[in-house]
Amino acid sequence: MGDERENLTYELFGQAVRELAQAVADDGYEPDMILSIARGGLFVAGGLGYALDVKNLHVMNVEFYTGVGTTLEMPVMLPPVPNVVDLSEKRVLVADDVADSGRTLKLVHDFCAEHVAEVRSAVVYEKPRSLVKCEYVWKHTDRWINFPWSVEPPVVRREGQVLDS
């Protein structure tokens, strides 16, 4: 991976989510629920929820990236973990901003697979090395991505967050 980066603006993000939603609709997939992977997937799931007229949105909090290019050894689900009863026999669309290594998506996909009728994934970006090949992808890239919500540093730095040492 070189120094070149994908630069996503909020305007382009809006277009990307609409195009993802159209791909889902054109495919005939009608999710009962959208499961977002927090944090980046929250934005994607909200846009998909409106575009696909799905009001049943859930969140799965997963910690993996700790900085630019730095990760934990394995992704970790953070509480509250969705109740499998809420997922039971549903058609679930998992939403995230990027399938980079695919390890986070795989964790969520595997969690869902035993309990749902069907699980598919939608991401804005998918990288070639991703373990999970998503059904719905706006753009393939091998670059680092500057997302509009994470390109600026936090306004405040919070110490003692979950998994901080």
From TrEMBL:
One of its GO terms (molecular function) is glycosyltransferase activity. Residues 11-152 form the Phosphoribosyltransferase domain. Keywords: Glycosyltransferase, Transferase. It comes from the Bacteria. The keyword Amino-acid biosynthesis does not apply. The keyword Transferase applies. This is Phosphoribosyltransferase domain-containing protein. It comes from Streptomyces radiopugnans.
